[in-house]
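Lecture notes, structural biology module. Today: joint structure prediction for complexes of two components.
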Amino acid sequence: KAGVTQTPRYLIKTRGQQVTLSCSPISGHRSVSWYQQTPGQGLQFLFEYFSETQRNKGNFPGRFSGRQFSNSRSEMNVSTLELGDSALYLCASSDFGATGNTIYFGEGSWLTVV
Amino acid sequence: AQTVTQSQPEMSVQEAETVTLSCTYDTSENNYYLFWYKQPPSRQMILVIRQEAYKQQNATENRFSVNFQKAAKSFSLKISDSQLGDTAMYFCAFMNLGNNNDMRFGAGTRLTVKP
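The predicted structure, tokenised, for the full assembly:
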């Protein structure tokens, strides 16, 4: 079974631009969540989607948004990029079933804002 | 609010030795999950072990085991027979049951296994 796949792996954007990151969960997993990892703040929860609905959201500004498609693939978007948005963005999926709420992570998307 | 504390920013251990990483957490909930994740230089987060709070028995996975003390809100990870490939950042994480994958992570412990 393929793991969680994130694209692109690396990208560089300029302040004020927007960015879209994509995540394909493990086959059969319907829950997708996103995390931001920075040296200063560590790992922080962004939001979680299940069956195309956002069920939970972390403490991030409205510039951070996401969505999930009917095939469970998810995208997250950051608008009006700031230097502080430079981070590793991790996507994770779970099935809430056989593995009972265990969350599996992708390799992440490295975003650098210049 | 739930918080997770890893008090050891860095640790080192000799190959084949045993090392224990500490983690404490704070919650008023009774049903939750605890995890240890490993993040090697590739930055891929890899699940090491998980513990359901309602289970009294400590989880084990090959060379990895935990000491779960619910009353003390402590969840330490023991790595036996350490291998060079165990070198990584280790994160302790907490998640409320039914909290829709909102996991709270500790700051991490950087473990170096020395040959």
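Point to remember: The radius of gyration of chain A is 13 Å.
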